[in-house]
Design goal:
Elements: H1 2-19, H2 24-27, H3 29-48, H4 63-79, H5 86-109
Length: about 110
Amino acid sequence: MRHAGSAVRSLILVLLTLSQPGCAALAGREATVTCQVADTATSVYAVKHGAVERGLFLNGASAGYILGFGIFWMGVKLLLHDHVDETNRAILNGVACAAGAYNFTVIQRLP
């Protein structure tokens, strides 16, 4: 449990560093993939180890469904990348990264 706080602080530091040049870094395709993979992978891991998904669209979903949805959602975001303005892309990616960071704290508390 002690390590969860330092891990979250580290992730916040990374997000703040990415946002320094403006929204550009967090709005890029690389951030889309990185943040979505972080969210999906930590969700799948947590569910496989006893957690219950409580997300808006995936409440109670199985690890397999979460993985499939995460891949699908990343594809949608990449497909629409050039049609969404930079600020909204940065917000979407920031939410995914924050979800991954939260999932990491949940994983730290699992038995």
